[in-house]
Amino acid sequence: MSTDALIRRTRRTVLVVEDEAVNRELLGFILRDTYDVLCASDGVEALDIIRTHVGRISMILLDINMPRMDGIELLHRLSEDEALSRIPVIMLTSDKDAELETLRLGAVDFIAKPYDMPEIILARVKRIIEFVEDRQIIRDVEHDPLTGLYTRSFFQEYCRRLLAAQDGPRRDMIAVDVDHFRLLNEMHGKAFGDEVLMTLAEGIREVAQERFGIGCRSDADLFFLFMDHTDDYQAVYDRLIRRVQSLGRLNNLRLRMGVYSNVEEERPLEWHCDAAKSACDSIRNNYTRSVIVYDDALHERELYNERLIADMDAALAEGQFVVYYQPKYDIHGDAPRLYSAEALVRWIHPELGFISPGAFIPLFEENGLITRLDDYVWHKAAAQIRDWKDRFGVSLPVSVNLSRMDFYDSRLQERLLGIVRDNGISIDELVLEVTESAYSQNMDRMLATVTELRRAGFKIEMDDFGSGYSSLNMLCLMPIDALKIDMKFVRNIVNAGAGYRMVELVIEIAKALKVPCIVEGVEDEAQYHLMKRVGCDVIQGYYFSQPVDADHFEAFFK
Ligand code: C2E
Ligand code: CA
Ligand code: CA
Prior knowledge:
Elements lengths: L2 H7 L3 E5 L3 H11 L4 E5 L2 H10 L4 E7 L7 H10 L8 E5 L2 H9 L4 E4 L5 H25 L9 H13 L6 E8 L2 H8 L1 H21 L3 E6 L2 E7 L4 H13 L9 E6 L8 H14 L8 E3 L2 H22 L3 E10 L6 E13 L3 E3 L1 H11 L2 H23 L5 E5 L9 H11 L7 E6 H6 L1 H14 L3 E6 L6 H6 L4 E4 L1 H5 L6 H15 L4 E4 L4 H10 L3 E3 L7 E2 H4 L5
Parallel strand pairs: 1-2, 1-3, 3-4, 4-5, 9-10, 12-14, 14-15, 15-16, 16-17, 17-18, 18-19
Antiparallel strand pairs: 6-8, 6-9, 7-8, 11-12, 11-19, 11-20, 12-13
Helix pairs in contact: 3-4, 8-9, 9-10
The chain binds ligand C2E and calcium ion (2 copies).
């Protein structure tokens, strides 16, 4: 039997409220075969029973004229209580005038006295109980339990109905996302995360009401708003962010808002939601923008991205990905000494030309394709180490990049060891760069995996240090062999200003952790000397060389 049928089979309870004993008996007789029947002889007694059995009573049959508390008064009392007001009430009456008033108070139907048509009474009670229960089931799936907003499928259905209305106003579809919500959950706890979502939902509900629209929570921290067109999206954003920030603790919190302006009836509604969401996603790593409107340029970029994803398989098979190498120099001595190289991938696309990793790496990280590309680069880099060893007699370590996704493969270490073995290189020659933000996103797993990789003999460099959210505490726990300072530190250096002090601080951290410090993005002589002065160990940057292909790299051996 289906759950539905099972639920339908369980007996419901009906409360009969009637002061005349004969009438109570009569109604009890009519209903008893189908329902459990409770009886009360006036409003006071009824209220008592209702309160002790709340949640169990499916229907109340209520007389109007009774001593102590009459039916009208009881209806009043029920309507004041959220839980009690949900129990459907059928009035027992012979008084036409009273009918109207009870309707206003929320009664759903009437049964006229005398009770001479038992089948009709029973059928009416049955129909109403079923109707009310069905409505409740729908309401439950319609709404997200946490925020009370619509769920996505119902939201879309209602949007469609709103759009179908003739000559409706122009409307916008807006996606709202909490930036770094997972991190917020981890740092402040899930209860606080829920509070943020509920508060944001309140803001969305408020805006929706004012602009004759509706809102929904689509999943996790993604919300949609469908409302009358506005020209001032920033104002909507400001209201939402102000509300969330009123919770305190969250001065850095950012929302992202993607807008599809003027929804078009000819296009499927789903398409508009997707467009608003991809606008929202497009500013994920852009900290200067929180609001963006979907436009042709964004559409073009989407098509371009789809093309890259579609072409990836063929590109791997045909060797379109080319690994470039950028030297890192040890700057301790009088003259800089070649220390290692970083492998950086490029895509030479037969039709689109040279594509830099910034255009496809984040894309492949999003959908998981990155793991296959990384694997390819690791193989190439290992083979290159072998080749240089054979031809130049040098042992130059090469670092490769690992993405967050790589850590979800339980065979990661096995694969890396296989690559080292197959190419006959030593394990500390294939250095692994792991970006700082990957650490902060899944601390426990990262800690375990990195520890094991190091135990196996791999050297780990923490990449982009200073761009993530690591606490000093976490740094002390992290097993690493070198810190790579994020490029933005060098960018911010202006002689002896605060930027300079920052680099000094970061280098002090590296010294405290007893690991070498690699500074990236050193572009000119002035920066080079500054770095030397603050005690930086290794430098990677255009000052020495841009990333170049393997052939050009050989010049550095000579
Ligand atoms: P990254 O790992 O932080 O790599 C350093 C980036 O800084 C490289 O950009 C490099 O060309 C650039 N760079 C180096 N020196 C300078 C400088 O003096 N000035 C400036 N302005 N830039 C400099 P690239 O090659 O475009 O790579 C960008 C990012 O793409 C890398 O950042 C890395 O996160 C990712 N990436 C590249 N190859 C791979 C790969 O094979 N796998 C994975 N997972 N990620 C990769
Ligand atoms: Ca790197
Ligand atoms: Ca880096």
